[in-house]
C-alpha cells in the first residue's frame, strides 16, 4: 500500500480501534464489553502489522485477543454463577453503582488531559535512531536471523529469564487464592461439551493443526517472525481447547509432572546462564553455539510458557465452580 | 502524508486516556480489568510507534521484544486479577468494592454476610 490508500487504511483502523475500546468500556452489558474487548485485540494486532512489528502482532493476536478473551469470557460466566443469587433485584438495572455526572466529567477532563499530554509528548519527541542499528550490527553474533528473537534470547536474555519467572510467580499467586479445602483439586473452567457438538468436534479437529502451528512458530522464530512466546501461546490454546472440549481433564495442581513442566524453561535458561557465567558472562552465549543453545532454551521455555499460560487462564482450583456446588471432583465424561 | 507510526502513536495516547476514564468510572471489577488492559495496550502502541518513527526499517526490535514481554506479563497480571475478582465475588457475592457503594450512596444489601458464611459452610469439601 502506498500514499493516500495507506493513510486512509491507517485512519480507519485507528477509528475502529478507538471505537472498539470505547464500546468495551462503555457498553452496558458486561458480556458485550468482553466481546468488544476481543475485537479490539484483533484490531490492535492489525495495527502492529501496519507498524511492521509482526512478532508483536502475533503475540497480541494470540495473547491479547485470544487467551485474554477466553479468560474474560470464563470470568463472566463464573461471576454470573457466583453472584446470580444476589443480583435478582438488580437484574434490570446496571450492575455497578452509577457515578455522578460531575465526577464523570471531572474524570473525562483528567483522562483527556493525560491522553493529550502523552500525544503532545509523542509528537514533540526528538528524532532518534533507537537501537535498531546496534541490533543489526551485532545480529551475526547472536546465532539467529530474527532480530526480535536475538534481543529476546541473547542480547536481553535477562528480561526474558525474569519474565518467565514472573509468569511462575503470577501462577503461584493465583493458586494461593485457593482455599485450603480446594487445594490439590483440578483448576476450574471445565465445560460440559455435548458429544458430537461443536466444541467436541473442534476439540478433536483443531489440536493437530494447532500443535503443528505452535511448534512451527517456535522453530521458525530463529529466522522469521515467531518464537517461544507466540508458539507457546498457540500450544496453550490447544491444551485449553482439549480440556474445554472434555477430552482431557485439567491436571491437579499438586501433580509433580505438571510442576516440572512449569519450571523446565526457567531452569534450563538459568542452567545455560550459569554455564555462561563459568565461561565468562552470565547468560552470555558464545557465537559458535548460540543457535543450538537458543533453540534449546526456546524448547524448554515453550513448554513452560504453554503450561503456565493455560493454567493462568484456568484459574485457581475452586470447589463448586465448574461442576455446581454439590458435585465432587470427578473425571469429565469421555 | 502522515506516517503510520505517528497515527498509531496518537491512537495509543488516546487509548491510554480512554482506558483511564473507564478505570475510574466503571465500578465493576471485571470492567476495570478490561480498562486496565486497554491502558496497557495503549502504552504498548505509544511505545512501539515511537520506536517506529525512523523510516529506515520496521519497528525497533528492542522495543518489539520489550512489548512482547509486556503483553505476556499483562496477561499474567490480568489472570491474577480475574482470580482475585472471582475469590472476592465468592466471599461477598459482589462484583464491585464495598467502598464504591458507600461513596455512591448505595448501602450494601442487608443479609449479605450471612449468605457468604452459608456458602463457605455448605462447601462439600470442607
UniProtKB/TrEMBL annotation, chain A:
Residues 199-316 form the Na+/H+ antiporter MnhB subunit-related protein domain. It is a multi-pass membrane protein. The chain crosses the membrane at residues 6-25, 30-49, 61-80, 101-123, 161-178, 198-219, 231-250, 262-287, 293-314. InterPro entries: CPA3_antiporter_subunitB, MnhB, MrpA_C/MbhD. It comes from the Bacteria. Residues 15-81 form the MrpA C-terminal/MbhD domain. Belongs to the CPA3 antiporters (TC 2.A.63) subunit B family. The keyword Iron does not apply. Pfam families: MbhD (PF13244), MnhB (PF04039). This is Sodium:proton antiporter. Keywords: Cell membrane, Membrane, Transmembrane, Transmembrane helix. It is found in: Cell membrane.
Automatic annotation (TrEMBL), chain B:
Belongs to the CPA3 antiporters (TC 2.A.63) subunit C family. This is Na+/H+ antiporter subunit C. The chain crosses the membrane at residues 6-24, 33-52, 64-89. It comes from Blastomonas aquatica. Residues 95-115 are annotated as: Disordered. It is a multi-pass membrane protein. The keyword Iron-sulfur does not apply. It holds the Pfam family Oxidored_q2.
